[in-house]
Amino acid sequence: MEIDFLQYQVRNGDTLTSIASRLGMTSEELKLFHNSHCQKMEKVWFENLNEVKNICVPTNFKTETQKEEERKKSFPSGFSESFLSKTYTVNETFENPFHPSVSIDYIIELALHKNKSTDQYILSYSQNDFKSNGTTPDDKVSCISIACMQSIMPLDFIMNEQGIITGLADHKKITEIFSGQRRELEEFYIGEVVQNYMDTFERSIQDEWFLLKQLKSTLLFQTLFPKTDWFQKETKWKEPFYFLQNSFPVQCEINIEQKNKGDQSVLTLLKGKITGFCTPQEILRGIQLQGPASQPAQGNIVLEYTTHKKNKNLLHAKASVLLSHEEACIHQHHINITQG
């Protein structure tokens, strides 16, 4: 058993306060420490140490401030190239009362570097190996949507020092790549449905702001690319989140919990609830109306992060959003992101 205290021999003139001050403790802290480590008959209750021969003193005492500083150092304090791994496996499930639940699996590959000339991070992002409910999609719409998206990957994003995506590194390159790839796709995928989808896809990627919003409003991007200052929060705060892709962000009140998950990792848990005044119909339609909502939306978002204590690497992330109306669930979305 590890011994974390020593026996200090009391000298003439010693008091609890004088001994404690040399250790960086208060007299109350020293008294409690001694009483928890000594024999029953050796407990101390008074400042005066007359007839007390020995006091148990800690070998590595830390004040509450020091403990808090040490705890904070276990969590990410800023974005770095080591925060994200090169590969993550992802599972997403979608549930609502009107359709069967859907489960999607895929792999994400990331490459991050810092542009020395601009001092900005550039993130190269791609997705592959899609499966729907455990099997490779074979319907025409799914196949063409995956093919169109993969034709412009990897996507290169600009990230700031908080790990937030602020833009596309070269939007023009994306549109030019798809224009070059489209003819080849049209030779493989034929039909009016395909043509209509490709027209819509090409229009959507030509609008840089819209393309960026499409991606950043997904639960995947909100979970995989958190603000690193979240990990240093101590009290609740308010922040907007997207509950549905291509909708609008809804104001939420966020509470944080943090704890050790083992010798090598720590857990950060964010729990938020909707405080913004909008209706579920507005969120579902993606159009926020002016004026107070007669029946405000009810909803919760939970984000869970497991990070490495030493290198602050993101090991695992989970998130869930629940949107309801009058206590009845109308939309659920869960995501599970695992390193490797």
Describe the structure.
The chain has 340 residues and is of the alpha+beta class. The chain folds into 3 domains: 5-61, Membrane-bound Lytic Murein Transglycosylase D, Chain A (Roll); 69-97 and 217-340, no CATH class; 104-216, no CATH class. The protein contains 9 helices and 13 strands. The strands form 2 sheets. The protein has an 11-stranded antiparallel beta sheet. It is elongated and about 95 Å long. The model has no long low-confidence stretch (mean pLDDT 90).
Q: How many beta strands in the DSSP annotation?
A: 13
**3D shape:** elongated
Helical residue percent band: 25-40%
- Helix count equals 9
Order of helices and strands: EHHEHEEEHEEHHHHEEEHEEE
Class by SSE composition: alpha+beta
**Cα gyration radius (Å):** 28 Å
Portion in beta strands:
35-45%
